UniProtKB/TrEMBL annotation:
This is Prepilin-type N-terminal cleavage/methylation domain-containing protein. The lineage of its organism: Bacteria, Pseudomonadati, Pseudomonadota, Gammaproteobacteria, Alteromonadales. Pfam families: N_methyl, Pilin. NCBIfam families: IV_pilin_GFxxxE. Keywords: Fimbrium, Membrane, Methylation, Transmembrane, Transmembrane helix. The chain crosses the membrane at residues 12-35. The keyword Membrane applies.
Amino acid sequence: MKQFKPSNQKGFTLIELMIVVAIIGILAAVALPAYQTYTKKARFSEVMMATTPFKTSYEVAVQSGDITALLDADAGTNGLPAEITVANGMVASVTIADGVITATGTTDVDGATYVMTPNGVTAPVQWTVSGTCKTAGLC
């Protein structure tokens, strides 16, 4: 009588494939929220950069000693930009009042705010950052 010899098969068993799929699922569950946070941070950088013209105008006014004219100015006068336009539309508004610059993002960045407060009217100007972006971890 002939004895049956199993052929030497190569491949993965079902349990091995299931373990690999489970590991990939766990890694995806961890990576996806982190990726979404990084995407929001990148989008919010547009909001932060939109404050640059206001910040520069304030610092130039401090250096030149003409800060009172700037603090009393409206947008579009005394070196303040009239309007901020951003290509991808992440910025809802940017305002300056008494030297405090406030930028608000659109719903793409959860409407988070970025507030920059100067330390005073003497050079060098140091800025303190606050706003809802701090608690959201965007800035």
